[in-house]
C-alpha cells in the first residue's frame, strides 16, 4: 500500500475502465486513507472511520468494475450485494447482517488460499507420496478385528520366521523398492498422468450436519462440526480418478492439514474488519420518491435496518463478533426515479461522498474496444484462436462497431458497455458457427462485413422513405 498512491491506483484502473475519472479518484482516495489511518498514533486510529461513497450512473458505465478492480488491486476482502434482496426485519427475506457474514467468509477464504500457497511445495510432496503408495503399497502389518470372544481367549504366540521366509521377504522388498523408484521417476516425468487410481477423499456430505434456530438461515444456522470439532471424525470416501486430477485433490487436502485454521480464521476476521469492502448495488431501489405510504414504507424499513451496519455496529458470526465501523461501503444506483435526498437523513450522513458517472460516448466505446486490458475484441480473438483462426479487426470496423453500440443504446435501453457484448455476438455469430471448418488461418473483419451483418444499408433505405 505504501507504493499505491491515489495517482497510481487511478493509473491501474485506467487499464480496465475508460473515463469516469471523478469516481476513480474518489475511490482511490478512500483506499489510500486506509493506509494513512494505519500510520496514525494508536489513540487516533479508532477515531478515523472510512468515508462511504455512492456512485450514481446508468448501468454498464463501470460502477461495479471500479469497486471490484480496486479491491483486487489492494487484495481487500470484497463482496457485492443487491439491496433489493433485503427485506425489513419481521418479513421473510434476507437479513441485512448477512452481508457482513458473507464478507467474513470471503475474507477467511482469501487468507486460507494465501496460506495454502505458502505450503504448496510441501503439500505437493505429500500428495505425490500418497499417489506412489497407492501405486505400490508400502508394507503394513495386517491387524485382525477382535471380537469380544477373542479378548478372553489365550493369545497365540507369534511364530518365528524361517530363514527361507526371511530371504523371500527381503527379495520382495528389494523388488518393491526398485518398482517404487521406477514409478517415482515416471511420475516426475509426467508419464502416468492419465493412469486411473483409487484415492480416499473427504466426504463433504459429512459436513452438512446442522441445527436451525429461528426463521433466518443466515443468522441462526450453525454447524455441528464447529461445536463438536474432533469428536466427529471426518468421513472418507473412495474415488477413482486420473493421477493428474488425484494430485490436485490430494494437494488441496494436504495443504489444509498443514495450515493452522484457527490462525486463518483470526486473520480473516481481522482483514474483514479493517480492510473489507461491501458494494451495495441498486441502492436506489430501496429509496422511495418522497411518499410515506405503500411500498415506500417497506423501503424505508430496509434503510433503517442497513443504517446500524453502515454506521458501525457489532455483528455475530460463527467465527465470533465482528465490528463494522471500519468497513468501506460503496453504494451504487442509476437514481432515475429517486434522488439521494429521498434517502433517510441518517443514512445520507453515512454516505458523505456521492459521485456522478457519465454515460458512455461513441469515443468511449472505441477506447473500450481497443485500449482496455480485457477488451471484448481481445476476448473473442482468443476464443476463436482455439479453432486455429486468427481474427483481424480493421480500424474502420472497430469504429463502426462502436457507433452501432452507441446508437443502439440511444434508441433502445441504455445498458452501457454491456451493449458491446450483444453487438459482438451478432457480428461473430456466423464466424463462431463455422470457425472449425475454415481452411484459412486469418479472417479479417472490415467495415463492409459489419455493414452486411447489421444490414445498415437496408435500414438506411427504409428510413429514407419517411424523410421529407
UniProtKB/TrEMBL annotation:
Residues 152-180 are annotated as: Disordered. Pfam families: AAA (PF00004), AAA_2 (PF07724). Residues 360-454 form the Clp ATPase C-terminal domain. One of its GO terms (molecular function) is peptidase activity. It comes from the Bacteria. The keyword Chaperone applies. This is ATP-dependent protease ATPase subunit HslU. It comes from Acetobacterium malicum. The lineage of its organism: Bacteria, Bacillati, Bacillota, Clostridia, Eubacteriales.
Amino acid at each position: 500500500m505504501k507504493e499505491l498512491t491515489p495517482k497510481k491506483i487511478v493509473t491501474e484502473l485506467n487499464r480496465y475502465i475508460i473515463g469516469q475519472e471523478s469516481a476513480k479518484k474518489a475511490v482511490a482516495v478512500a483506499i489510500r486513507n486506509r493506509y494513512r489511518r494505519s500510520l496514525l498514533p494508536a489513540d487516533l486510529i479508532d477515531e478515523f472511520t472510512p468515508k462511504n461513497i455512492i456512485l450514481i450512473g446508468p448501468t454498464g458505465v463501470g460502477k461495479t468494475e471500479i469497486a471490484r478492480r480496486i479491491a483486487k488491486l489492494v487484495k481487500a476482502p470484497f463482496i457485492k450485494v443487491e439491496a433489493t434482496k433485503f427485506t425489513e426485519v419481521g418479513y421473510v427475506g434476507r437479513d441485512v447482517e448477512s452481508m457482513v457474514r458473507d464478507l467474513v467468509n470471503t475474507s477467511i477464504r482469501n487468507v486460507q488460499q494465501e496460506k495454502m500457497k505458502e505450503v504448496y511445495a510441501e503439500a505437493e510432496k505429500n500428495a505425490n507420496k500418497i499417489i506412489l503408495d497407492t501405486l505400490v503399497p508400502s508394507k503394513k502389518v495386517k491387524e485382525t478385528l477382535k471380537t469380544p470372544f477373542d479378548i478372553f481367549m489365550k493369545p497365540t504366540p507369534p511364530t518365528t520366521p524361517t530363514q527361507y521366509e526371511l530371504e523371500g521377504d527381503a527379495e520382495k522388498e528389494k523388488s518393491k523398492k526398485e518398482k517404487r523408484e521406477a514409478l517415482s521417476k515416471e511420475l516426475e516425468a509426467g508419464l502416468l498422468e492419465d493412469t486411473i487410481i483409487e484415492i480416499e477423499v473427504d466426504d463433504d456430505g459429512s459436513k452438512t450436519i446442522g441445527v436451525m434456530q429461528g426463521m433466518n438461515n443466515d443468522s441462526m444456522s450453525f454447524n455441528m462440526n464447529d461445536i463438536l470439532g474432533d469428536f466427529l471424525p471426518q468421513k472418507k470416501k473412495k474415488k477413482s480418478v486420473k493421477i493428474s486430477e488425484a494430485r490436485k485433490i490430494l494437494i488441496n487436502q494436504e495443504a489444509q492439514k498443514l495450515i493452522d485454521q484457527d490462525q486463518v480464521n483470526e486473520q480473516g476476521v481481522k482483514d474483514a474488519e479493517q480492510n473489507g469492502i461491501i458494494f451495495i448495488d441498486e441502492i436506489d431501489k430501496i429509496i422511495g420518491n418522497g411518499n410515506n405510504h405503500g411500498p415506500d414504507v417497506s423501503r424505508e424499513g430496509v434503510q433503517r435496518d442497513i443504517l446500524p451496519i453502515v454506521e458501525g455496529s457489532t455483528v455475530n458470526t460463527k467465527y465470533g463478533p465482528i465490528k463494522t465501523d471500519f468497513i468501506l461501503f460503496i453504494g451504487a444506483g442509476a437514481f432515475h426515479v429517486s434522488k439521494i435526498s429521498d434517502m433517510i437523513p441518517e443514512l445520507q450522513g453515512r454516505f458523505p461522498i456521492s459521485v456522478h458517472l457519465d454515460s458512455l460516448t461513441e469515443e468511449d466505446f472505441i477506447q473500450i474496444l481497443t485500449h482496455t486490458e480485457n477488451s471484448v475484441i481481445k476476448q473473442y480473438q482468443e476464443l476463436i484462436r482455439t479453432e486455429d483462426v486468427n481474427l483481424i479487426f480493421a480500424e474502420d470496423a472497430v469504429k463502426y462497431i462502436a457507433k452501432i453500440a452507441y446508437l443502439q443504446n440511444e434508441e433502445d435501453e441504455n445498458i452501457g458497455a454491456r451493449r458491446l457484448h450483444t453487438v459482438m455476438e451478432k457480428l461473430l455469430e456466423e464466424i463462431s458457427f463455422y470457425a472449425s471448418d475454415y481452411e484459412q488461418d486469418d479472417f479479417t473483419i472490415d467495415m463492409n462485413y459489419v455493414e452486411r451483418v447489421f444490414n445498415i444499408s437496408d435500414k438506411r433505405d427504409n428510413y429514407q422513405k419517411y424523410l421529407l
